[in-house]
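lol ok so funny story. i was supposed to be doing the assay writeup but got distracted and ended up predicting the structure for this chain instead. priorities right. anyway since i did it might as well share w the group, maybe its usefull for someone
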Amino acid sequence: MQQIVMRNALTTIIAGALIAVVSCTEAPTETPTEAELKQLSARKPNWQQNQVGYEGPVVQSKVRILDKRFLGDLPEQYIQGNWWAMGGPVAYQDFGEFQNEFFYADEKSSEYFKADPIVMKVFRPAFGARARDRTGRVVAEARLLEIGRDGAALAGQATIEEFHYGKDGNVVFYARSVIRQDKKERELVSIGHKTREYFSLYHALADKFPNVQ
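and the output, tada:
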């Protein structure tokens, strides 16, 4: 399993944290044509390590999911790494069977900042995520599409698109999903065959930062 590369000396802190998960509503899934899958594969994010966006120590903690009804494929407890301190931007989530890494685009090169710089600076969103299985193979990626408007951002709402990959690296499942308060709420569009949920917990908005009310 590939781990986040730490550039500075790192002290790992193990601490307890609590989180609750809400149920996710899925859209009716369409069976894609071969041409559609090729088009989706051409659009996949292909996140790179130089797009992580942060450097420095990562603090590791244990997170427990309280509501057992909505665990799905997730374990009751997982490991989370946050940049600099607990409550900082999420660096990774380790669920055992797979690990999610989060990417924070550079402010100067990001089209998101150009389009809405105030919202982006305040909410410090993760522009993307990458899931790897135990062997290190990339099994899924996600890309932030938009932050909610008309007050929805204050409620922690965002929209992402998901790309799930087969063993050949091509897209086998695609979805546009609504994230609210770090949890996947529903799928607006879904195409293909999904083998498991990778982004039911997606920290699209760092709404726990002190500068966010």
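The longest strand covers residues 138-147. The chain has three helices and eleven strands.
back to the writeup now i swear
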